[in-house]
Each structure stands twice: as structure tokens, then as C-alpha cells.
Amino acid sequence: MDSDIITQIRQTVHQLCEGFPGAYWREKDRERAYPSEFVNALTEAGLLSSLIPEEYGGAGLPLSVASAILEEIHANGCNGAACHAQMYTMGTLLRHGSEEQRQKYLPGIASGELRLQAFSVTEPTAGTDTTSISTTAIRDGDEYVVNGQKVWTSRAEYSDLMILLARTTAKDKVAKRADGLSVFVVDMREVVGSGMTIRPIRTMINHATTEVFFDNMRIPASSLIGEEGKGFRYILTGMNAERILIASECIGDANWFIKTASDYARERSVFGRPIGQNQGVQFPIARAFAETRAAALMVQEACRLYDAGEPCGGEANMAKMLASEASWAAGEACIQTHGGFGFAEEYDVERKFRETRLYQIAPISTNLILSYVAEHELKLPRSY
Ligand SMILES: Cc1cc2nc3c(=O)[nH]c(=O)nc-3n(C[C@H](O)[C@H](O)[C@H](O)COP(=O)(O)OP(=O)(O)OC[C@H]3O[C@@H](n4cnc5c(N)ncnc54)[C@H](O)[C@@H]3O)c2cc1C
After folding, report:
1. Which atom of ligand 1 is nearest the CA belonging to 124?
2. Measured between alpha carbons, how far is 206 from 26 in angstroms, rounded to an integer?
3. Beta bridge mates, 269
4. For the chain, does the N or the C end have fewer beta carbons within 10 angstroms?
5. Most distant CA pair in the chain: distance in Å?
6. For ligand 1, atom 50, which residue shows the shortest CA distance?
7. Distance from residue 128's CA to the centre of ligand 1 (Å)
8. 348 within 8 A of 338, measured Cβ to Cβ
9. pLDDT in the model for residue 1
């Protein structure tokens, strides 16, 4: 991608973020309120539809641009979690949906008229072992009847559409555990209160995450994406993009922490000199800077491979792991540099510190990434 275009997009994002300073995010965080104004501004600027092809009303840009957008949002102290799923979740529809489904939904998603932000995979009892999910979708004439429960379906209250993974054939009736799972695009406007119940979960960050219950929820059979029973594969194909984009957010967070810590270390004077003159203060920030630069190179490499259509599972996973660890190290250095003021809300450090911690766990935890690397890069026996 032309680096001038990326520089221009970064400037656009930077200017937009200036309208959403720390005070805006602090208030939303305190109230656990959804940042609708920010999401609307991103939508109006066309930034959330960057990955949707032009023929469906999007900008048709590569992942490297989406990565720059999310990184910049986070580097400017904002947070893309309220809407980042919109960017990659539509990939399931784009790659595996029918032309009719693409025409029906993608232009509305591109214009912002429709929100596809709910990605409902995780269940309370299955955890990371996705093939053990127990939500079922059973065909009944022209409909599927869905029963079960999801946990951590983020943004469900602020979404019109949901990508849902459910079991259509029992696990003991399929040759491979990954078979018999299917993906649906659910029009939530039709089923909330009539088969679907959403309950918010209050968490240590402002993330609009929820539990979703399905009680004989009836959806048209036309909601099925692709072939019945192949859903697990469809979900997996979207995961590399998700990991790379989350890694980009972590790089943004890390850069915010590093800049905030360095600025403070230059200005704060104790014992008659700037605290940043002490190596004990400099070194953790310098180390986090080096770790962030290294992780950013892995993110770039993962984007390059993804955009070239080459396999990038290892790079996408390693990018997410390294970037989430770099942002955590940078957050740790930043809070330590601020001393007591690191705990004061008005500095935004404690908020960003809480927010960035999520990415060592979601969308996939570090242990599972290491297991992936061990199995696929090192050819060691599968450990789970
Ligand atoms: C705020 C938030 C938002 C989220 N949003 C979404 C969403 O929108 N949609 C969605 O579907 N999900 C979402 N998730 C779920 C998230 O993807 C999972 O929490 C994550 O994948 C970890 O799964 P788990 O919580 O079930 O942990 P578990 O699978 O129970 O694992 C717990 C711990 O054990 C470790 N572990 C488990 N098995 C192994 C093993 N074999 N080897 C080594 N270690 C192991 C894990 O690494 C982890 O540290 C969200 C979660 C959070 C907290």
C-alpha cells in the first residue's frame, strides 16, 4: 500500500480523535456508557468500512490500512473496541456468504445504516475449546430453532446483526469435532425479546460485553452462511484478520503509554531534577519502546502476508502475543513513572492500563497462541 495514503489516513484519524479527548473517555468509562458519538464519527468518515469492497459501498482497502486506523485510534488515547469487530466480522459474510446475503447486508454495513458488531462464539462451559460449544440450531422447515447460551458477546446491545456459531449436528454424530458447527447471520432486530435475551456483564473496562440467551429462537433458514456443518472453518478464516487488528490496537496503546511516560518523566522534577534523568526511570520506558518496535515489525509482516493472500497464521498469532505483551510492559512503565498520579483518573493512565490488559486474554489467550506456535511452527505434538 502506498505509504502516502497510510500517512494521510493516519492524519485523518488523528484529527478525528482530537474531538474525543481523555475527558470524553473518562466519562464513558465512569458510566460504562457506549461511545456512540465516537463510533458515529468513525462511520461518517468512512473509516469502519475500509475493508468492505467498493462494489458493496466500502473503500476496498487492504488490512494494512485498517491496521493503521486502529493503531492511530489507540495511540491518540481513544479506544476502537466499541466498533473494531465491525471491520473484521463482516469478512465471514464477505468470504462465505451468498451473493444475495452480501447484497442484502454489506452496503448497509458500509453506510453505517446497519451495525454488524456482535460476534457470538464463546460459551461459559466450553471456553477456548470452541468445538465443545453446546448452543444448537436445529432445522425446522424454513427455519432454524436456536437454543443455548453465549458469554462475552460484546456490543450485542449496539448491533443490528450478529454472527452466531451454533452446533447443527451433535458432536457424537460427526467424524471430526470441528464438523457439524454452522454460522448464521442473525437479524437481532427480529429476535431480541422474542427468543433472544441480552444481559450486560459489568467488567473492569468499559466494553459493552454481554451474555446472550437463546430460548427457542426462530431464525429464517436463509440466515445460514455457506454450507451447514462447515462453520468452524469459516470462523477460523476470519481469525487472522482479527488477531492482526487487535495487535495494531496494542501497538497504538503501547505508543500512547511510551509517549505519556516520556513526557511526564521529562517534566516531573523530584530531588531537584527531572525523574527521567534517572536510569531506573528511563530503562523500563526504553525497554518497552524496543519491545514495541519489534512487535510492530511483526504486525507489519503479518499485514503484508495477509494482504498478499499468503498464509499468515503464525505471524498473526505472534503479532497479537508480542503486541499485547509490549503494550502491557509499556503500561507498566507508564504507571510506575507516574508514581501516585498513575492512579488518578484524570491522567488516563489507569484507564488505558486496565483496557490494554484485555488483549492478553481476548480474543485468544497467550497460552493458546504459544500452543499454536509450538504445533504449527515447531511441529511439536498438539498439547490439547
Ligand atoms: C471483555 C471481553 C470481551 C470479549 N468479547 C468476545 C466476543 O465479542 N465474542 C466472543 O465470542 N468472545 C469474546 N470474548 C471471549 C474471549 O475470546 C475468551 O475469554 C478467551 O478466548 C479465553 O477464553 P475463556 O475466557 O473461556 O478462558 P478458558 O478457555 O477458560 O481459559 C482460562 C485460562 O486457561 C488457559 N488455558 C485453557 N486451556 C489451556 C491449554 N490447553 N493449555 C494452556 N492453557 C490453557 C487459558 O490460556 C486461560 O488463561 C471476550 C472476553 C472478554 C473478557
Report:
1. 26
2. 10
3. 274
4. C
5. 79
6. 152
7. 5
8. no
9. 66
**∠ CA 53-160-87, rounded to 5°:** 35
Nearest CA to ligand 1 atom 37: 128
CA gyration radius, the chain = 21
Which of these, 56, 58, 51, 45, lies nearest to 18 by C-alpha position?
45
Residue closest via CA to ligand 1's atom 9 equals 153
Domains of the chain: 3-111 (1.10.540.10), 116-228 (2.40.110.10), 233-377 (1.20.140.10)
Residue whose C-alpha is closest to residue 46's, from 18, 69, 20: 69
DSSP for 53-122, please give it. -GGGTS----HHHHHHHHHHHHHTT---TTTHHHHHHHHHHHHHS-HHHHHHHHHHHHHTSS-EEEEE--
pLDDT tens digit string along 183-203? 999 999 999 999 999 999 999
**First-last CA distance in the chain:** 39
Q: From the alpha carbon of 365, which atom of ligand 1 is closest?
A: 47
**Could you tell me the distance, in angstroms and rounded to a whole number, from the CA of residue 152 to the centre of ligand 1?**
9
User: Which residue's C-alpha comes closest to atom 4 of ligand 1?
Assistant: 152
What's the gap in Å between 362 CA and the centre of ligand 1?
6
Q: Which of 198, 361, 384 to mutate to test the pocket of ligand 1 (most atoms within 8 A of CB)?
A: 361
Strand partners of residue 197: 213
Residue for cell digits 431480541? Answer: 192
CA distance linking residue 19 with residue 57, whole number of Å: 26
| Predicted confidence band of residue 237 (pLDDT cuts 50, 70, 90) | confident
CA angle 327, 324, 178 (to 5 degrees): 170
Sign, CA torsion 378/244/229/192: positive
CB atoms within 10 A of CB 124: 11
Enumerate residues lining ligand 1, CB below 6 A.
Answer: 119-122, 127-128, 152-154, 203, 207, 209, 358, 361-365, 367-368, 371, 384
